Amino acid sequence: MAAPASTHALHAVLSPAVTLVDERRALYRLGLDLFAPDAELSDNLADHPIVRYEIGRALAGESGLDPARLIEVAAMSVRDVGIAVAADPAAADVLEAPLRIVAPPNTRPQPLTEVDGDRFETALAIVAEGVRLFRELAPAMAEDLLGHVSMLAVMKRETSGGVVSASTRYVPGIVLIDEPSVPMEVAEALVHEGAHEKFFDMAITKDFLDSGAEDADYFQTSWSGARWPLEQTFAAWHAYSCLAQFFLSVGAEQLGPDSLLAKASERAAEIGRWLLVHERDLLGDARWLLRALMGEATDSSGQGLAPSEVDDPPGVAVSCHLSRDHVFRLSSNVQYRRSISGRVVAGRQANPPRIYWLDEDAGWAIGQCGRDGTPQKFERLVLRATGEWQVGSAEVRRRLENAFGELLLADLVERTPEKEL
Fold first, then answer.
1. What is the 3-state secondary structure (H, E, C) of the chain?
2. Which residues, at least 6 apart from 100, have a Cβ–Cβ distance to it below 8 Å?
3. Dist CA 59 CA 151 (whole Å)
4. How many CB atoms lie within 10 A of CB 321?
5. How far is CA 102 from CA 146, 218, 239, in A?
6. What is the pLDDT of residue 419?
7. Is residue 159 over pLDDT 80?
8. Whole-model pTM?
9. Angle at CA 325, nearest 5°, toward 320 and 331?
C-alpha cells in the first residue's frame, strides 16, 4: 500500500480551495437567480452562513426567499480575529437555526457576545490565539480549510450541553465551539469542523453522493456503538483523517480536555476500511479521495490515479439525433452561472427547483443559448464549436448531440425544427 498524501494536497487535486469556494458561490447565486433574478450576492453575502441557510431552504422547497431578509441577517456584527466571530447582541436570534440544530436534547445553547463584556473578550483572545496557532503549526492545512469557515460562534459553557464543537450541513459555513480554555481547543475545532465545512462544499459541487446514499448500509462505531448513515460516515472519516494529519504537527502543545487528536488516526483507519468495502455507494470523486487518503489510489504500475480515472457506475448514455435544421433556445424559468473554473451550474424553477452541474460540453452548449431567448441553429453551433474546440466536425457533432441530449432531458433547453419557428 502506498503512503497517503496530505489532505490539503489531495483536496487541491479535486479542486483548489479558491476554486471550490467560487463554485459554491456560483451555486448559491444561482439559487438567488431562481427566486429573485434582479438581486445579486456579493462574496460576503454569498459566504454568510444564514444567507446560505435561507437560500438552501428555498432550494429545498421549504420556503420562499426574501432578499431583504438576506441583507438583514448579514448586518449582524462580528469581530475579526483571523476569523469572523459572532459578536452582535442579537446573535442568538440571527443564529437560532444552527444553535437549535446542534443542541443536545433539553438544552438551548446561547452565544457569547459583546454584552458579556470581559467574558467575551477573554474567549475572543483565546480564539485569536487558536487561529494563529493553527496557521503556525499547519499553514497549508489552515489555508485549505479556513476558506470554508465563514463564521465562528462561541457558546456559553453552561448552555452548550457538553457540545465541544459542531457544524451542520443545513447551515454551512458556521462553526460553533464551547467556551475554550486553551488555544489548542480552538485550533483542533477549526480542523475538525473545517474538514466538515470542506466536505459540505465538495458534496454540493463534486461527484460525492447521490440519493442512493440514503439507502446504503449504516456504519457502527467500535468506540461508542453509534450507527451512522453513509454521508455522516464519510464526513466523520474525512474529519478524522484531517485531525490525524494535524496531530503530527502539534508537538508539545497543550491539548484540550476533550481532544480527539490522539484517537484520530485509529478511528480514521477503522472508518476508512469500512468505506472501502462499501465504496460502490460513493460517486467517483468521493471514491478517489477515499482511496487516495487510504493510500490505495494507484493503478497497476503503482502510479497515482487522477480523479477522472475513478469512474462512477455505468449509467444510461444520453444522446439524441439532431439535424442541421434543429434550433435551440433556453427553456423558460432557467438560469445558469459559470464559475471561475469554467464549470456551469444550471437550474430551473420547480417545487423544489432542479439544480444540475453540467459537464464541459453541456456547459458550453447552454452558454450558447442566450438568456435573451435568441434561437441558436444546431449547424451553426457545430461550426462554432469546431473552431473553438479544434477537433473534427464529426467528433464535435457527436459531443454536441450528447450535450444537448443532457440539456433536453433536464428540460434546460428547448428544441424546435427551424420551419416551426
1. CCCCCCHHHHHHHHCCHHHHHHHHHHHHHHHHHHHCCCCCCCHHHHHCHHHHHHHHHHHCCCCCCCHHHHHHHHCCCEEECCCEEECCCCHHHHCHHHHHHHCCCCCCCCECCHHHCHHHHHHHHHHHHHHHHHHHHCHHHHHHHHCCCCEEEEECHHHCCCCCEECCCCCCCEEEEECCCCHHHHHHHHHHHHHHHHHHHHHHHCCCCCHHHHHCCCEECCCCCCEECHHHHHHHHHHHHHHHHHHCCCCCCCCCCCCCHHHHHHHHHHHHHHHHHCHHHCCHHHHHHHHHHCCCCECCCCCECCHHHCCCCCCCCCCCCCCCCEEEEECCCEEEEECCCCCEEEEECCCCCEEEEECHHHHHHHHHCCCCCCCEEHHHHHHHHHHHHCCCHHHHHHHHHHHHHHHHHCCCEEEEEHHHC
2. none
3. 22
4. 7
5. 21, 21, 17
6. 53
7. yes
8. 0.92
9. 65
Report the mean per-residue pLDDT for the chain: 91
Cell of 13: 487535486
Quick: pLDDT tens for 90-123: 999 999 999 999 999 999 999 999 999 999 999 9
Asked whether the beta carbons of 95 and 152 are under 8 A apart, the reply is no
The whole-angstrom separation of Cα 239 and Cα 199 is: 9
Once rounded to an integer, what is the mean pLDDT over residues 229-243? 98
pLDDT in the model for residue 301: 38
Cα gap 391→396, rounded to integer Å: 7
Here the cell at position 334 is 432557467
pLDDT digit string, tens, across residues 383-407: 999 999 999 999 999 999 999 999 9
pLDDT of residue 174: 98
**Model confidence at 151: pLDDT above 70:** yes
Question: Stretch 211-224: mean pLDDT, rounded?
Answer: 92
